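Before relying on records like the one below, remember that each one covers exactly one chain. Contacts with other chains, cofactors or solvent are not represented anywhere in the record.
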Amino acid sequence: MPALASKVSRRLWAAGLALTATSPFVAAPARAEEPPLVTTDDRQDSFYCQERRLGYWFYCTRPKPPERDNAQAAPATSATSQLDAVTAELRELKAKAILEPTPANVTAYIRFQREQLDRASLFSDVWQRAIWQDPDLDYTLQRPVSTLGKRQWQDARGAERNAVMAHLSERYGLFYFFAQSCGACEVMSPIVQSVATTWHITVRAISTDGGPSRHFPTYTVETNQRARMGLEPKITPAVVLWDAAKGQAIPIGYGVMSADELQDRIYLLTSKEAGRDY
């Protein structure tokens, strides 16, 4: 029996050695003793992602890099560049047709020119329609161009001007510079006198050469008044509006003016700011 027990014991010991050599549970610690991997490569990814199945948290599924659009559109050409190109092509076709007037060259120029004329006509048509449909763009509402509209505008404008001129003498007076030897002054003097009489405006006539005026017998000989007012000293006739409230001279104009033009200038300079009436 002791021999049999010894024989069984030897068999169990041999079987234990075989299991130790082949079992995965015993082999695992041997891997744990290997030095840790520092670099990342495909083998490491295979170890963590396939063998250990660690999944998302170890980036086993790598994000795909954004795809670049290889067929990127070229930057759009500006409208100015396109128009310059059309102009350049038209000039080139015209020059070629003139220098080499073959039927083909002349026909090419005529066709291209017709295309641009059609384009210009379309632009003009759309321009006109836009003005019709947007009153803010329609300048004819301020200054009519039709015969009927222009007549109505002129009547309203005349009434407004007359209302201003009726009260002008309350604040303003006129300086009128003339010369006896000035032919234009002979034409302008009665016009100034007529406007002043109509609206009861005081006129101070100043003779630049000391000579008299039959329209303004109570004249004054100039003593450097024009220079003090900042006027051109050698030009006559000259009409200057004097603002008594501000003590300021407002030049109206030089040379011959009609009565309507003289009144229009006075009206604009005393009642309209620059840029409001155009």
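The chain has three domains: 23-62, 79-130, 150-271.
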